[in-house]
Give the backbone structure.
Amino acid sequence: MTSRDYANRKPTRKGNANKRGSKGNQPKRFPYLVLLITIAGVAGFGYLLWLLNSTDEAVTTPVVVETPKKTTVKKDPNALPPAPQEEWTYLEELENKKVEVDLPEVSTKPKRPYQMQCGSFRKESQANSLKAMIAFQGLEAQVRKVKGTSGIWYKVVLGPYDKKRDAERQRHVLQNSGTNGCQIWFWESS
């Protein structure tokens, strides 16, 4: 089998080379059909407008009936009509209405204070390291030694807080310094 060089090959024409007017070179014809449809549409629209205009004139032609003239008082065309009288009664009713509301005396203060735990470690040195980082932010933390079912844990705790909002403020201070993962719970004394 011989190798063929398609890149350097000269284009060849199939068929008769003298043939003009192939598909790419057809002469443009004037669109008579489109022109006829457009003219018919414009003529139909014009006829429709003429028809509507002639029916409007027949309907709106007023019949002139002469009536005997009465003596009338000429009114000023720029005069305003009299202001209408308001017939609303709800304004007086609302001014004289008294509303009584029963508010139950509910203490919004929680029964227990809140605490914030920022870490729990197996080694006391890790807990003290986190406590030092929290101290650099101007907050005071405690390290608690807790004996659990899986051994001894050292928890880094802040608090107690009377309001949860106070604990959230300090958590935002810690988050801004890069200490994330602090959780707010009810205070547990151990």
User: Anything to note?
Assistant: Residues 17 and 56 are 69 Å apart (CA to CA). The chain is about 35% helix and 15% strand.
